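Design job #97: recover the sequence.
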């Protein structure tokens, strides 16, 4: 009975975490609903690394997959840390990193599906059009969600948060293409 109670409580915590990330992704909540936990940030970093590795494998094959994954995760965490540190809000790193990484993990299945559509897209225009339109929609949605996360963490304007999110997306893509 004791173990069953603990398992039920843990299940409730995980469900609540996923609901919180969902609410952030739908722009209904800010990262303040997440616990300021290094453990949570580390778990989400691990999940992010897994999804990044899958995406790298689809795009580039097994060539330097560990390096690509490590650089992607490192760049993501470094950008959040630098922005928070420069604005003297480093104490918000665990929550902000959890929100950014959690949203990235939630977006990953959509990205994977769009990446897998690239093969059939070479011979079917409708698939190509759907894949491109989907990529644009997912990228814009990602920037629109990450922008308010950064706005809340930095206590700044929405335009600043979105500009930082856009910079992150462009920098990540540029670095990934160079590896």
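Job complete. Output follows.
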């Amino acid at each position: 009975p004791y173990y069953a109670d603990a398992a039920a409580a843990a299940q409730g915590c995980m469900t609540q975490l996923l609901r919180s990330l969902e609410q952030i992704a739908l722009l209904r909540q800010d990262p303040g609903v997440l616990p300021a936990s290094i453990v949570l940030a580390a778990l989400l970093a691990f999940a992010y690394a897994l999804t990044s590795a899958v995406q790298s494998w689809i795009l580039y094959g097994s060539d330097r997959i560990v390096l690509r994954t490590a650089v992607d995760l490192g760049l993501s965490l470094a950008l959040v840390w630098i922005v928070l540190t420069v604005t003297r809000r480093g104490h918000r790193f665990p929550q902000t990193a959890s929100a950014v990484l959690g949203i990235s993990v939630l977006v990953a299945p959509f990205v994977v599906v769009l990446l897998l559509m690239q093969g059939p897209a070479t011979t079917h225009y409708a698939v190509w059009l759907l894949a491109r339109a989907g990529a644009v929609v997912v990228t814009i949605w990602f920037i629109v969600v990450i922008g308010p996360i950064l706005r809340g963490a930095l206590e700044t304007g929405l335009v600043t948060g979105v500009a930082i999110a856009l910079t992150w997306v462009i920098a990540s893509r540029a670095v990934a293409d160079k590896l």
